């Protein structure tokens, strides 16, 4: 029975991936290595009929919303990191008693 349940779980994850959920999101959701999920997709994708691939039901919509939130978060963290770096550079420049400015080479 454990093997059967495991196979059903594998198929559900593969179907969700085929429905458009990113492997990285599925890996975090189910705590499974992304390469394992990719292997399952390669093993099962040719045997899953298109009508068995879930449409945008509530569960998948929530996963896709989570995916979008993660992408926005990643972009925000990157932008914040860039701003913090700019602020640190400006602080270092303010500490200098005689800042060096590039001279015009005319």
TrEMBL record:
Pfam families: HTH_Tnp_1. InterPro entries: Homeodomain-like_sf, Transposase_8. Keywords: Coiled coil. Residues 56-86 form a coiled coil. This is Transposase. It comes from Cohnella hashimotonis.
């Amino acid at each position: 029975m454990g093997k059967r349940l495991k196979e059903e779980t594998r198929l559900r994850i593969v179907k969700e991936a085929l429905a458009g959920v990113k492997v990285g999101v599925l890996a975090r959701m189910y705590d499974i290595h992304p390469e394992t999920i990719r292997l399952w997709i390669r093993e099962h994708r040719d045997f899953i009929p298109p009508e068995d691939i879930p449409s945008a039901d509530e569960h998948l919509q929530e996963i896709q919303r989570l995916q979008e939130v993660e992408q926005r978060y990643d972009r925000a963290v990157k932008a914040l990191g860039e701003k913090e770096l700019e602020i640190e550079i400006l602080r270092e420049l303010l500490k200098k008693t005689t800042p060096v400015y590039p001279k015009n080479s005319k």
